[in-house]
Structures are given as structure tokens and as C-alpha cells.
């Protein structure tokens, strides 16, 4: 009886911990369409100001790829009231840090300041939205920056072409078929008028969410948000109508070459649903089951026990419209890529045809509980989660209830989703080989 009571106490403690992690926030819209989310946490004198724009690599026209990533750089050039090249200096000299990143679906800018510089962060992001200086000098400068990034991250990085290879071979019509960074010929061909039109279309308040998280006073922050953002003109409504992909019904095998590698690799790739769909959550659990940690199924079998693979993993690459799922391995010694493929397929087949054990299921649940708690452990992470949940999932409250989705996933559902998406006839086999690089 004492043992049962102690276990019950531990369970209650765990529930209390998760409850304590609940993120309180307030959200509202300005008249110009800007969505605002405020999260107050006065535990430390730090504040994050961030803006997420619903524009990514997929938002392009034929012959004009890579614009969203290009703008990630361009919008640090300067504004009407921030001298060219001074953005980072202003942030660092006021005790802050900042960054930005772009995916196929969105672009995210953020600053982290001591909380007494909240107004500075809001002013800078309002300047980026209202007064960016987009001229030929800035375009020319950032074209070279992007080209250098492509050389470092893709052209000269081992396995750096893998994501472009995935997109090219999993998509025929949807713009996910093109790399997020774009084709350099498209950037070279872009005119100043092209770039200015892109800014006018996408970098507008009604295509953005502003998040302020940290050591703030809600009432004062609302006043500052209104002062700096309410007069920014609303843009035209944005409509998206991307082409749909036909299902993959026959397995195909492709080869790609990378001059930066000596060890080949094998990948089994699948097209999966967008990340807001329930099945995408299940696929995330499957990838964790197969390859998260040294005790996972693929790692223990192929790396530890059979000594066939140098590395092996299953990756759920989440995107808004369609996902990409990759099971990937590098061989040890004389192990052939065909053997690796057979071994990986054997483990995927088990997930399709058998229920995972109750022990493994509980292990999965524990990992996702831990990840959920950790994701809300600092205001910078909370700001990113709030923006993402609102902008891309359409539900800000996921920051507190997303774990309930994972808790509700059953072993039977894991098996069913694997059977639905991870069958051989729905796959693309990628032989990623040393040799003259595949151009993108």
C-alpha cells in the first residue's frame, strides 16, 4: 500500500510539473491585420521580440526561386532610420543578440534584449516592416552573401546536397521541388523591381505575427506595439494555390553525386502529409522509435550489433503542405548499400506489420513528455513556438496542448500510419555517391 501511495505521489508530482509549465499568453489583432501575441514572464530581465512572416522558399514564381531566403539577408541591410550595415551594431551595443532563419514555409526574425530595451526591439522590427531600404546596392551585396552561403552549406559541405535531392525527387509540381536557397541563376536574373514587388506583397502586417515574450508589462507593451505597428499599412490579401502532387505508387531509384564525400550513403525517402495533420505527429513518433538514441531500433541493430552502418537514422522533415520522410545510412567497410537498404526496410516493415511493444511505447511517451517540458523552458523558445503555432498550425494554444496529441497516439495508430505512408512502392531510393556533384 505504501508503494502504491508513493507511486501515486510521483505521478501527481509529474502532473504538477507539466501544469507548472503551462504558458500564459494574450493575443489580438491590430486593425492592419498584424497578429500580436504577448507572453509575460518576469523571472529574468530579458525579453524576446520576434516577427514571423508567412513567406518561405515555396513562395515564388517560375524563374524567381530563393527570394524568401534572400530577403532573410536583405532586410538586415538597413532602413529609412537605420544606417546601412548598422543593424547588428545597434543590437550588440545595447546588450542584445539577434538572428533570422527561413524555411520553405516561413521567415522568422528575432532579437533578445535586456528587458529595459523592449522598445528598441519593437522599433527595429517596425522599421524592418515599414521602412526597409531596398536598392540596387543592397541587392548586389546580398546576392554575393547568398552565393557564399550556398558554397559553404551546400556546394562544399559533405552531404550538403541531400535536401535538394530529396525535394527534386519527391515532388514533381509543388514548389518544394526547388531548394529553399533557390537557384543562383534566378537571383542573378532578378531585377530591383522584382525584389521590391516581393517585399510589397509578403512583408506586410497582415502576413505576419509579432510575439513579445519575457519580462514585460502587458499594458505598457500593448501601448508600444500600437505606437510602432498600428500605422503600418495593410497589404493586399495573399492567396496561395500550389499544385497538388499525385501519389507515388511505384518505387523508383535515383543516383546523386557529391564531390565532397568519400563514403556513399543510401536513403529511403517518402512523401508524407503536412505537419499540422495528425498523421504527421505519428510519423514523428515513428522516427523517434526507429533512430532516436543508441538504444533505438536502427542504431542498435545496424551500428552496435551488426556493425554494418557508420550512421543510421529516420528523419521526419516537417513542412506545411507535404512532409518528407527519410531513412538514411552510411556503410561501414565493405557493407553494400543494398544490404543497408534491406536492413532498414526490415525494421520499417516491422513497424508496418507489428505493434511496437508496450515497453517501447512507454519509452516514446516519456521522451515526448520530456521534449514538451524542455521546449517551454525559456522565453526565446516560447516566442518561437507561439509564432509557429499561430502562423503555421493555426492554433496558438498548441503550446500548451500539443503533448495531448502525442499522449493520445496508440500503438495501433503507429502501425496503421506506417502502413499508410512507409511502403516500398511509395518510396524513392536514393544512392548518394562520391563523384562530380549533382547541380541544383
Account of the 3D structure:
This protein has 440 residues and is an alpha+beta fold. It has helices spanning 2-20, 67-74, 87-93, 118-130, 136-155, 162-170, 184-189, 192-202, 218-229, 278-291, 297-305, 337-353, 358-375, 379-391, 398-408, 411-421; strands at 26-29, 35-40, 46-53, 97-102, 107-114, 208-214, 252-258, 265-273, 309-317, 322-331, 427-434. The strands form two sheets. It has a six-stranded mixed beta sheet, with helices on both faces. A five-stranded mixed beta sheet has the order 7-11-8-10-9, with helices on both faces. Strand 9 (309-317) and strand 10 form a beta hairpin. The radius of gyration is 24 Å and the shape is globular. The relative contact order is 0.16.
- SS-based structural class? alpha+beta
Order of helices and strands: HEEEHHEEHHHHHEHEEHHEEHHHHHE
Strand ordering within the main sheet: 1-2-6-3-5-4
Distance between the termini: 66 Å
Number of continuous helical runs: 16
Mean pLDDT: 93
Shape: globular
Q: Segments where pLDDT lies below 50 for 5+ residues?
A: 1-20
Amino acid at each position: 500500500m505504501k508503494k502504491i501511495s508513493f507511486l501515486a505521489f510521483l505521478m501527481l508530482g509529474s502532473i504538477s510539473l507539466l501544469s507548472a509549465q503551462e504558458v500564459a499568453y494574450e493575443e489580438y489583432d491590430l486593425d492592419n491585420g498584424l497578429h500580436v501575441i504577448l507572453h509575460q514572464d518576469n523571472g529574468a530581465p530579458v525579453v524576446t521580440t520576434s516577427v514571423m512572416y508567412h513567406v518561405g522558399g515555396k513562395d515564388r514564381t517560375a524563374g524567381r526561386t530563393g527570394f524568401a531566403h534572400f530577403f532573410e539577408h536583405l532586410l538586415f541591410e538597413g532602413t529609412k532610420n537605420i544606417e546601412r550595415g548598422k543593424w547588428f551594431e545597434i543590437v550588440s551595443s545595447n546588450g542584445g543578440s539577434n538572428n533570422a532563419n527561413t524555411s520553405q514555409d516561413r521567415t522568422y526574425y528575432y532579437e533578445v534584449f535586456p528587458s529595459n530595451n523592449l522598445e528598441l526591439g519593437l522599433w527595429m522590427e517596425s522599421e524592418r516592416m515599414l521602412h526597409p531600404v531596398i536598392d540596387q546596392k543592397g541587392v548586389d551585396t546580398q546576392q554575393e552573401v547568398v552565393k557564399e552561403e550556398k558554397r559553404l552549406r551546400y556546394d562544399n559541405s559533405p552531404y550538403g546536397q541531400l535536401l535538394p535531392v530529396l525535394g527534386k525527387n519527391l515532388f514533381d509540381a509543388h514548389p518544394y521541388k526547388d531548394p529553399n536557397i533557390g537557384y543562383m541563376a534566378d537571383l542573378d536574373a532578378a531585377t530591383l523591381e522584382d525584389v521590391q514587388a516581393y517585399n510589397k506583397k509578403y512583408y506586410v502586417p497582415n502576413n505576419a505575427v509579432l510575439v513579445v515574450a519575457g519580462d514585460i508589462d502587458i499594458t505598457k507593451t500593448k501601448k508600444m506595439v500600437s505606437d510602432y505597428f498600428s500605422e503600418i499599412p495593410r497589404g493586399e490579401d495573399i492567396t496561395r494555390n500550389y499544385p497538388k502532387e499525385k501519389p507515388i505508387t511505384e518505387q523508383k531509384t535515383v543516383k546523386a553525386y557529391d564531390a565532397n564525400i568519400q563514403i556513399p550513403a543510401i536513403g529511403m525517402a517518402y512523401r508524407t502529409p503536412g505537419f499540422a495533420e495528425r498523421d504527421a505527429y505519428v510519423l514523428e513518433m515513428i522516427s523517434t522509435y526507429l533512430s532516436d538514441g543508441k538504444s533505438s531500433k536502427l542504431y542498435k541493430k545496424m551500428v552496435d550489433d551488426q556493425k554494418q552502418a557508420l550512421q543510421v537514422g529516420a528523419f521526419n522533415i516537417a513542412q506545411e503542405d507535404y512532409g518528407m520522410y527519410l531513412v538514411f545510412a552510411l556503410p561501414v567497410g565493405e557493407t553494400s548499400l543494398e544490404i543497408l537498404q534491406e536492413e532498414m526496410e526490415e525494421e520499417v516493415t516491422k513497424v508496418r506489420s507489428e505493434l511496437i511493444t508496450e515497453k517501447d511505447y512507454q519509452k516514446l511517451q516519456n521522451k515526448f513528455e520530456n521534449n514538451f517540458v524542455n521546449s517551454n523552458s525559456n522565453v526565446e523558445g516560447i516566442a518561437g513556438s507561439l509564432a509557429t503555432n499561430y502562423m503555421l498550425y493555426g492554433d496558438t494554444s498548441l503550446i500548451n496542448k500539443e503533448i495531448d496529441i502525442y499522449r493520445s497516439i496508440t500503438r495501433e495508430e503507429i502501425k496503421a500510419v506506417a502502413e499508410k505512408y512507409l511502403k516500398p512502392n511509395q518510396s524513392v531510393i536514393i544512392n548518394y555517391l562520391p563523384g562530380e556533384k549533382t547541380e541544383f
